[in-house]
């Protein structure tokens, strides 16, 4: 096995003591959305690229019918490699435009 000897030893010891190698429950604030809601958020943003995080937070309710913050939406999207950003409004510059501006 490729790994530190101490890590392998601790995993073996944990397996012997608890019959599992998974970690123990952690402390912290519980998540405000379920995994299903996270998948739906990602799907909505893939289907509608112009959807902002604040608009998405107004449409989505979290667990226990809580209001979801725009920051929570941004975090869920960033874990999937997406961004909720307003699209750029302005002239579309081609390679020729960029080349002419440097001259």
**Class from secondary-structure proportions:** mainly alpha
- Poorly predicted runs: none
Amino- and carboxy-terminal Cα gap: 58 Å
Q: Share of helix among residues?
A: 40-55%
Computed CA radius of gyration, to the nearest angstrom: 23 Å
Can you write the helix and strand succession as a string?
HHHHH
The portion of residues forming beta strands comes to under 5%
Total of DSSP H or I helical runs spanning 4+ residues: 5
Overall 3D form: flat
Main pleated sheet: none
Mean pLDDT comes to 84
Total beta strand runs: 0
Strand-helix topology:
Blueprint (H helix, E strand, L loop, with lengths): L4 H14 L16 H13 L5 H7 L10 H10 L15 H8 L1
Organism: Elysia marginata
Protein name: Transposable element Tc1 transposase
Give an overview of the whole structure:
With about 100 residues, this protein is an all-alpha fold. Helices cover about 50% and strands about 0% of the residues. The chain has five helices and no strands. The chain has helices spanning about 5-20, 35-45, 55-60, 70-80, 95-100. Helix 3 packs across helix 4. It is flat and about 70 Å long. The termini are far apart. It comes from Elysia marginata. This is Transposable element Tc1 transposase.
Please name the defining characteristics of this protein.
50% helix; mainly alpha; 103 residues
In short:
Helix content is 50%, strand content 0%. The chain has five helices and no strands. It has helices at 5-18, 35-47, 53-59, 70-79, 95-102.
């Amino acid at each position: 096995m490729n790994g530190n000897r101490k890590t392998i030893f601790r995993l073996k010891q944990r397996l012997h003591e608890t019959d599992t190698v998974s970690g123990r429950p952690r402390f912290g604030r519980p998540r405000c959305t379920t995994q299903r809601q996270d998948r739906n958020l990602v799907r909505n943003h893939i289907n509608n690229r112009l959807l902002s995080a604040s608009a998405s937070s107004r449409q989505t309710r979290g667990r226990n019918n809580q209001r979801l913050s725009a920051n929570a939406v941004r975090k869920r999207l960033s874990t999937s490699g997406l961004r909720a950003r307003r699209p750029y409004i302005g002239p579309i510059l081609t390679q020729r435009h960029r080349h002419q501006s440097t001259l």
